[in-house]
Amino acid sequence: MSSKEYGLFIGGRWETPPGAATFHSTNPTNGTEVGSFVSASAADAGRAVASAHEAFPAWRETPAPRRGELLLRVAEVLRRRKEELGRLVTTEMGKVIAEGRGDVQESIDFVQYMAGEGRRLAGETVPSELHHKFCMTVRQPKGVVAAITPWNFPTAIPNWKIAAALIAGNTVVFKPASATARCGAEVVRAYEEAGLPAGVLNLVTGSGGTVGNALIDDPRVRAVSFTGGVDTGREVYVRGARGLKSVHLELGGKNPMIVMEDANLDLALDGLMFGAFGTAGQRCTATSRLLLHEQVYDEFLGRLLERLRSFRVGDPLEERTGMGPVASAEQERKVQSYLDLARKEGDKILIGGEKLAGGGYDAGYFLSPAVAETRPGSRIATEEIFGPLLAVIRIRDYAGAVRVANEVSYGLSSAIYTRDVNRAFRAIGDFEAGITYVNAPTIGAEVQLPFGGVKNTGNGGREAGSVAIEEFTEIKTVFVDFSDRLQKAQIDLAP
Ligand code: UN1
After folding, report:
1. Rounded Cα–Cα distance for residues 24 and 54 (Å)
2. CB neighbour burial string for 54-89, b if at least 16 within 10 angstroms, e if fewer
3. pLDDT band at 210 (very low <50, low <70, confident <90, very high)
4. Confidence at residue 418, expressed as pLDDT on a 0 to 100 scale
5. Rounded to the nearest 10 degrees, how much is the dihedral formed by the CA atoms of 337, 339, 345, 350?
6. Which of 176, 222, 311, 337 has the fewest Cβ atoms within 10 Å of its own Cβ atom?
7. Is the CB of 283 within 6 Å of ligand 1?
8. Which of 89, 153, 226, 257 has most ligand 1 atoms within 8 Å of CB, for mutation?
9. Which domain holds residue 355?
C-alpha cells in the first residue's frame, strides 16, 4: 500500500493550509509510511468548528429519518469498501486482517443501526395534573460535537461517535489518533461520498495538545466525546468542565476473566486466547487478568502455555497469523517496561515477552504473547498495560475471585466461565464493571447494546445502543396548555 497525503476536511472541502507542518503514520509491521497529514493549528481547529457551527441550523432542521437515509448510504459505502478499509486498518494499526475487517464491520453495523434511530429518537408523553394540558419531552441536538478517538479501533470508534452525533442532529469536528489518521480520513471520505452536506462533519488532524485542546476550549463546541487513556481523559474532563460542556469519556480497563473449577475448559481457553491476545491485547475490553480456580489451575495453565507455543505471531495481513505487531514503538516499550517491572516485583513470566527478531520481524514491533503468574495487588495485576501480557492469579473460591476482580480502579468488562447458573447470575451483580460476559470472553461488544464502564473507566456515560443518543441530545420538556385559561400547577388542584 503506497502512502497517501491528506489535508484537513473543513466545510466540505479538503484543504492543506499553506506552509502547514505535516506528520505521518507508519505501518507497525515494517515501518513504512502509510499516510501523511496536516499537523493542524489551533486556528485550523477553530475554522473547523466555525464550519460545523454554520452547518448546524440546516442539519438540525433536516428531518431525522432523512438524516438516517444518509447514514444508510454511508453504511453502503463502508460495506462496498470493507475489504480495502479492513486492509488499511491492519496496515496502519497492526491487528490481524480478520480483526481489521471486523473493525469495519462494527462501523457498518453501528452506522446502519443509528440510521434506524432516525425513526425513533423517542421522547416521553406523560399525563398532566391539570385539564387540557399536554406534557411531553422531545430530544434536541446539542450543537457542535468534538469527537476525539484512539488508534485501537480506528474506524469503529470514530463511527460510534460520528453516526450517533449526526443522527441526533449535531454537527461534528473529528480528531482521529495521529497513529491511525489515514483510517480516520477514510471514514470521513465515506461520509463525503454518501453526500453529507458541507460542514456537517469536519476532520482536523494533529496533536491532542493543540487540536484537541482547541476543540475542547472552543465555546461553540457543546459536547466532547473522548476515548483514550485515563490520564488524558481526566484532563479532557477538567478542561471541558470549565466550559460546562457535556464530556463523555471511555477510558481504560483491567478486565478479569474468572475460570471456575466447573468451567468448560476448552471453551474458556478459546475465549481467553481471543480475549487476551486478540488485537494484541490492545482493546479497552481486553482480558488482562485471568483469575483461575486452584482446582483447574495447573491443567488450564498447562493447556494455555501449550497453545501459546504454537501461536503464530507475524504478518497481520496473512490470514493464518494469530497476532500481529503491537501498534507502535511506544506500545512496545510500555509492554516491555511492565515485563521488567513484573520480574522486579517477583512475578514469574511463564512464557513470552521477547522482542522477536530476524526474518520479517526486524522492522516491526513484534512481541511474543506473554503470561505472568502474579498475586493480587501487584502492578501488572492492577494497571492497564494495553498489550499482549496476561496476568494470572490463583483463586480459591468464588468469593475470593470476586474480591480480586473488583480490587482495581477500572470497571469496563468482566467474564466468568462456570456451568453453575446460580453463580453466573450472582456474578452479574457482583462484578464492578459496565459489561459482564458469562461463558464468553471480555471482548466482543455488539453495537445495539450500551458500551461503557464504572469507576475510572469513564464518567458514567455509555456509547452504542440506543442510549448513545442520550450523550448527544438535550431533553426539552414541553407543556401545551389548550384550556384557554391560566392553570396553576401545584396550586389549582391543591386541597
Ligand atoms: C475498545 O476496546 O475500545 O468489545 C472497544 C470489543 C469491541 C469494542 C472494543 N467490540 O472488544
Report:
1. 30
2. ebbeebbebebeebbebbbbbbbbbbebbeebbbbb
3. very high
4. 98
5. 180
6. 337
7. yes
8. 153
9. 255-438
Alpha-helical (H) ranges within 150-229 are 156-167, 181-193, 213-217
Residue range 143-188, pLDDT digits in tens: 999 999 999 999 999 999 999 999 999 999 999 999 999 999 999 9
Residue 269 within a domain:
yes
Give the tens place of pLDDT for each residue, 402-432.
999 999 999 999 999 999 999 999 999 999 9
Instruction: Reduce the secondary structure of 432-459 to three states and give it as a string.
Output: CCCEEEECCCCCCCCCCCCECCEECCEC
199 and 318 co-located in one domain: no
Mean pLDDT of all residues in 464-476 = 95
| Alpha carbon distance 471, 156 (integer Å) | 17
Distance 12 CA to ligand 1 centre (A): 30
Q: Are 331 and 386 in contact (CB under 8 A)?
A: yes
Centroid of ligand 1 to alpha carbon of 445 (angstroms) = 6
Q: pLDDT, tens digit, for every residue of 426-464?
A: 999 999 999 999 999 999 999 999 999 999 999 999 999
Query: Among the options 99, 186, 261, 284, which is catalytic?
Result: 284
CATH number of the domain that residue 419 is part of: 3.40.309.10
Q: Which three cell numbers stand for residue 181?
A: 489518521
Q: Label residue 492 by pLDDT band (50, 70, 90).
A: confident
Instruction: Identify whether residues 95 and 16 lie together within a single domain.
Output: yes
Q: Is residue 482 part of a domain?
A: no
